[in-house]
Amino acid sequence: MRLGVYGGTFDPFHNGHRAVVEALLERFRFDRVLLVPANIPPHKRHVAISHRCHRVAMTALATADLDRAVISTTDLDAPAPSYTVDMVARLHTAIPGSAPLFFILGADSFEDLPLWHDYLRLIESCHIIVTARPGYDLGAGHLPEAVRAKIVDLRDVAASAGPPDTTDAMPKIFLTDDAYIDVSSTMIRERARAGESLDGLVAQSVAAYIRKQELYTETR
Predict the structure, then answer these.
(1) Would 219 be classed as within a structural domain?
(2) pTM
(3) Tag placement on the chain: N or C end, fewer CB within 10 Å?
(4) Distances (CA, A) of 211 to 177, 204, 205
């Protein structure tokens, strides 16, 4: 199985997240993309995060019409602290035909990758797809030379060219800019707190859920 794994706090899941899923489904021809709401990210232990039920609900609402996008609670079900390298290992065990899976992360996370728990083991255990974001150049100077050698730059390759070759089974790091949208969960929370419109930022069903549940009404 060609499996993509897209993790995040998804607080809320917004149109930028959805654009990433749609674009990578096209480019990599995934059989399935797992959407993995994070439990308590180690780097956000002191940050207020909406209850997991809300985050799962908003992710489900935003992707209800994407047949190949499936929510996974593998991180929510894990004891804290939960690290990505362990989550990937659990998925490989649970879905052995998926190894090595493709783990999707944003350019901001890519910049911080050397700070992740056991990041070199993560890089050796799965493919990584990095999605471009405004304000980040996807430079790799912060990574060791051996890691930089794994990079495959797809930013000038049309998605219609088909999925990149992974037949050598060596995990790679793919740089992409298929979904370059300037929207963030922080922006949406601030707009919701101020009572401003969320049109064009989240699905209408997600906007209605935020209003009904009165999410983001307190300073976070």
Answers:
(1) no
(2) 0.94
(3) N
(4) 32, 11, 10
